[in-house]
Amino acid sequence: MSAKHFKQPPAPKHGRTPRRATVAVAAVAALALLGAAATFAYYTATSGITNMFTSAHVAPQVSEEFKPDAGIKENVGAMLPDDGKNIASYVRMGFSIYWQDKDGAQLWEEPLSSESGLPTGILPDYTIVMGDALKANPQPGSWVEGADGFYYWCSPLEPGAATDALIKKVTWDLGHPDGRKLVVDVSVQGIQVDPHRAFNEAWGASSGLTPGADGVLVRKGGN
Q1: In this structure, what is the dihedral angle of CA atoms 132, 163, 196, 31, given to the nearest 10 degrees?
Q2: Which of 223, 124, 217, 126 is nearest to 167 (CA)?
Q3: Within a domain: residue 126?
Q4: Does residue 24 belong to any structural domain of this protein?
Q5: How many structural domains comprise the chain?
Q6: Tens place of pLDDT per residue across the chain (223 aa)
Q7: What values do phi and psi take at 201, rounded to 5?
Q8: CA–CA distance from 196 to each of 26, 69, 161, 205 (Å)?
Q9: Which residues share a beta bridge with 126?
Q10: Per the domain annotation, does 23 fall within a domain?
Q11: Hey, which of 54, 147, 149, 221 would disulfide with 208, CB 3.0 to 4.6 Å?
């Protein structure tokens, strides 16, 4: 499987750039994208003589085992810390794989994957193995690729919970003669589960997915 790209990666994904999702703002719910972690703010109001506002947020994090000296990144997934403010969320991930020269500048030459169908005698620059949780069709507790190239965790993620691995393992050769380094750039975004219209307004059109009656993502017009 070829490398996929997140919303704001430095390198293009097979020549196409992921579309930027737009977030609709409702009367008492505001969604604000704040950088690669895509934190969203959610506000609830209690009516009365004084309006009481309780602030919450959605701040997922990338979980991984990174061994730079060995050229290995493995068990890459997402987690939602139980910090007393996070609320149940849908999460999506993307990743970009590209070269940096010895001074940290990005190179336009695309790294060659072991799954690129290379000619005989051409060695790959890296090997990637996707996790077992990546499925062709949505199901509870799995990753599925949306129409926009992002990977979506199909079940709502509760605070303190983590997804299964999207990427099982990436390995690469550290000894390139010109000193370049391979960068595996992984990012995660989250959006509140309740109400479901938040997902549909922000991500539904681009992903081709929508929350089902039980909250698990399904494909629009199909399974």
Answers
A1: -130
A2: 126
A3: yes
A4: no
A5: 1
A6: 444 443 343 443 433 333 333 333 332 333 333 333 444 444 333 333 434 444 568 899 999 999 888 899 999 999 999 999 999 999 999 999 999 998 999 999 999 888 777 777 888 899 999 999 999 999 999 999 999 999 999 999 999 999 999 999 999 988 788 888 899 999 999 999 999 999 999 999 999 999 999 999 999 987 5
A7: -75, -35
A8: 13, 43, 20, 13
A9: 113, 172
A10: no
A11: 147
Q: For residue 175, is it within any domain?
A: yes
Structural domain of 155: 40-219
End-to-end CA distance of the chain: 23
Q: Which of 34, 78, 42 is nearest to 60 (CA)?
A: 78
Rounded to whole angstroms, how far apart are CA atoms 125 and 77? Answer: 23
Degrees to nearest 5, angle at CA 98 with 74 and 138: 55
Q: Is 189 helix (H, G, I), strand (E, B) or coil?
A: strand
Over the stretch 200-221, which tens digit does the pLDDT of each residue have?
Answer: 999 999 999 999 999 999 999 8
